[in-house]
């Protein structure tokens, strides 16, 4: 139990920042392209309370941490926040602008991973190579790379699915959109069979290569 509490203490700050900036980025870019739905709902904010989903942000990640401790495996976090409301019909060019709104969240996660790397450089410069804040920094990098890779999977309603929808010809895009009601179930099945991490690995490797430029 003490290991679980320690893991929660380490991951809590990175997870809260990761989901907050990810969701706020969607709303901010949507506003830039003409949709003020998120702004009107008060979701373009850095207040994490407005973005936290009790199940996806708290219960599921804690359960995964607990299972990883009981089974002795790595702590591969999985979870979600309350999606920022975006009315794609209010975007100036709905299908094209959807691409940028969708990419805003993963881009925010990549930026945060870079910021965590820079914070660790400061720690290393002061001779800190272990301890609580060093572990938080490592968690911050990992959490953001995982969230970036997860959200870029080409499965609706994930951001990668929105990107693919935006790039497909109109007829194929609307046919592809029919899988959206089953998207979360698909992700859960992929997670349960360990296929999810295999699909995410190439994007995580690219993200890791980018953040190492800042070491």
Give the secondary structure arrangement, pairings included.
Layout: H1 2-32, H2 37-40, H3 54-71, H4 94-125, H5 132-151, H6 159-167, H7 170-176, H8 183-192, H9 195-212
Helix pairs in contact: 1-3, 1-4, 1-5, 4-5, 4-6, 4-9, 5-9, 6-7
Walk me through what this model shows.
This protein is mainly alpha-helical. The chain is built from nine helices and no strands. It has helices spanning 2-32, 37-40, 54-71, 94-125, 132-151, 159-167, 170-176, 183-192, 195-212. Helix 4 packs across helix 6 and helix 6 (159-167) runs antiparallel to helix 7 (170-176). The radius of gyration is 18 Å and the shape is globular. The two termini are 34 Å apart. 36% of the residues are buried. The mean pLDDT is 88.
Name its key features:
about 220 residues, mainly alpha, about 70% helix
Structural class: mainly alpha
Largest sheet: none
Count of DSSP strands = 0
Question: Could you say which overall geometry the principal axes of the C-alpha atoms support?
Answer: globular
Radius of gyration: 18 Å
Strand content: under 5%
Helix content: 55-70%
Mean pLDDT: 88
Unreliably modeled segments: none
Number of helices: 9
Q: Could you state the order of secondary-structure elements as H and E?
A: HHHHHHHHH
Distance between the termini: 34 Å
